Amino acid sequence: MAKKNIEEQVEENTMMLTVIERDIDKMKNNHLFHIEKDVAQLKKTIEKMDARMWAILLLLVTSVMAGIFGDKIASMF
Predict the structure, then answer these.
(1) How far is CA 58 from CA 9, 46, 61, in A?
(2) DSSP of 7-57, one letter per residue?
(3) How many helices (H) and strands (E) does the chain have?
């Protein structure tokens, strides 16, 4: 009787391991792919935002400098 219980337990554990292996494979091949894809998309978006911020900063500094030097040049004439 005890041997049958051990065999049943081994069979149950084998089935559980099979389910766990399937779930891990599913996460590895499906979910991680989508996460990597989303991270790559976020990276591109952040790079675009970074470039825009630098462009705005450059325009701001240029306009301030033009205002300062423009007044000095205009006052010379």
Answers:
(1) 70, 18, 5
(2) HHHHHHHHHHHHHHHHHHHHIIIIIHHHHHHHHHHHHHHHHHHHHHHHHHH
(3) 2, 0
Distance CA 21, CA 60 (A): 57
Query: Which of the four pLDDT bands, split at 50, 70 and 90, describes residue 51?
Result: very high
Give the model's pLDDT for residue 46.
Answer: 95
- For residue 30, the number of C-alpha atoms closer than 13 Å in the C-beta half-sphere is 6
Give me 70's structure tokens: 């423009």
CA 76 – CA 73 distance, rounded (Å): 5
